Amino acid sequence: MTKHPVLVAGAMLTLFAIAGSSLVALTHEQTKERIAANEKLALLRNLQAVVPPQLVDNDMVTDTLLAHDPELLGAESTLVYRGRLGGQPVAAVLTPIVPDGYSGPIKLLVAVRRDGTLSGVRVISHKETPGLGDKIETKKSDWILGFSGKSLNDPQVERWQVKRDGGDFDQFTGATITPRAIVRAVKKTLQFVQQKGEQLYAAPQSSHPAEGDA
Amino acid sequence: MTETGYRQIIRDGLWNNNQALVALLGLCPLLAVTNTAINGLGLGLATTLVLVASNTTVSLIRNLVRPEVRLPVFVLVIASFVTATELSMNAWFHGLYNILGIFIPLIVTNCAIIGRAEAFASKNTPVRSLVDGLSIGIGFTGVLLVLGGIREMVGSGTLFAHADLMFGEAARGITLSVGEDFKGLLIAILPPGAFLGLGLLIALKNVIDERTRHLRAARTISPGHEPEAATHA
User: Fold this and answer.
1) All structural domains of chain A with their residue ranges
2) Lowest-pLDDT range, A85-99, B52-66, B178-192?
3) Which end of chain B is more exposed for a tag (fewer CB within 10 A), N or C?
4) pLDDT the model gives residue A3
5) Spatial contact of B150 and B197, defined as CB atoms under 8 Å apart
6) pLDDT grade, residue B3 (50/70/90)?
7) Element (H or E) spanning A178, and its range?
8) What local confidence, expressed as pLDDT, does residue B141 receive?
9) Is there a contact between B132 and B116 (Cβ–Cβ < 8 Å)?
């Protein structure tokens, strides 16, 4: 024992590593179902905020599609949730990333009805300045609700800008970059949906339910 | 050991050696999450849980572990408890978990925890270490809660917002509002507000210590003793 103190120390470290990993594995086993349920519930709550639950009868959380259009959607691949009623397409909820926020990317949830009008837009996560750029949260102001009912024809495409740039959308006092970036991202998302049309609903499911970002 | 021993441990943990106000350990999470009282309380309780578990475990294994692998073993113990805590919070306090985010796994890097393991738990009995972990944890939680409360009141004009994330729907009502028109001073919830708030709390603690020392000195003078000079320099 005294001959190989390094070996004893190594064995001891291994033992504790095993004990520690067992504790973590055990906790994981005990909590994983609850965590998955929590994440699904949180996701569903977000989806229902933009697509009223009475309008769809399918499980939007699992009826998903992976879209690839970094130019319009801001990420290599973007998850699209599809809402249907009696098998008929009702709305698609996209999860684009706004790359040009004031302090980092902003994750959005954009719900577009089949007729191309917006059903709702929400911010999932952002790092904008508290008190200035964070008015994009529903908690802080109603600004983001102003998108509901808008489409590429209402207002005209060239009016899809903040008022300072000659558009129709309000900016915030002291923060123009954040709303400007979001207006542009929502417009691009609408353009993506217009381009894809019915394909968006026809393509078979291409991602596992509730995988990745919630 | 003796009762006074425990009393001393508790007093040190809560006040004399408060990790946030005196030792100035664990400042990264302390400053980052204290923009509301509930966030502070949440992180404080998670830290306390880890402290109690890690202190007790380290004390139990203190005679087993060879000195040369002491620190890696302590880190393993702490990291395991933090990960378990993180998973449990994700399962039972999902909303709070989402807000605190990266700062729960970062409890691992809170120097207060490895500090207590090394400086106290590795030299004391399990019960004493448990009491120490609990006192240090509550002392730390108290500072997080008070600093969070101050910053929330000054910065957002509310107190205990999102209490429902921690205590369930029934607690939604305990959110207080300072005033209808008060929109808050932005600086309080920004990082500088955290430093200013912590600075004020440290100053306040020092003032209180100074006062008590004067009072004690005045009391010892009267029976004819010399005042105990600056025990706390």
Assistant:
1) 1-50, 55-202
2) B178-192
3) C
4) 64
5) yes
6) low
7) helix A177-196
8) 95
9) yes
Other beta carbons less than 10 A from residue A47's beta carbon:
21
Residues of chain A neighbouring B90 (CB-CB closer than 8 A)? 31, 35, 38
Token pair belonging to B36? 């509301």
In the block, tokens 């090394």 appear at B118
Whether ipTM > 0.95 holds is no
Spatial separation of the C-alpha atoms in residues A163 and A12, rounded to whole Å: 67
Cis status of the peptide bond prior to B105, with omega within 30 of 0: no
CA-to-CA dists, residue B163 to A64, B38, B58, B104, B158, angstroms: 34, 6, 34, 18, 11
Q: Nearest CA of chain B to the CA of A202: how many Å?
A: 34
Q: How confident is the model at residue B65 (pLDDT cuts 50, 70, 90)?
A: confident
Please, which pLDDT band fits residue B233 given cuts at 50, 70 and 90?
very low
User: What is this structure's pTM?
Assistant: 0.79
Residue in the block written with tokens 């902003």: A106
d(CA B57, CA B51): 10
- pLDDT for the residue A212: 41
Q: How far apart are CA A82 and CA B119, in angstroms?
A: 57
pLDDT of residue B189: 84
Taking each helix axis from N to C terminus, what angle separates B37-60 and B111-119, rounded to the nearest 10 degrees? Answer: 30
Domain boundaries, chain B: 3-221
Q: Which residues of chain B are within 8 Å of residue A9 when distances are taken between CB atoms?
A: 66, 68-69
Cβ contacts of B67 within 8 Å, gap of 6 or more? none
Per the model's pLDDT, the better-predicted residue between A180 and B174 turns out to be A180
Determine the residue type at B53.
A
CB contact under 8 A, B91 and A38: yes
- Are A9 and B91 an interchain contact pair (Cβ–Cβ within 8 Å)? no
Is the Cβ–Cβ distance between A126 and A101 less than 8 Å? Answer: yes
How far apart are alpha carbons A92 and A89 in whole angstroms?
8
Q: What single letter denotes the amino acid at residue B165? A: L
Can you list the alpha helix ranges (DSSP code H) found in chain A?
5-50, 70-73, 177-196, 199-202
At A206, the amino acid letter reads S
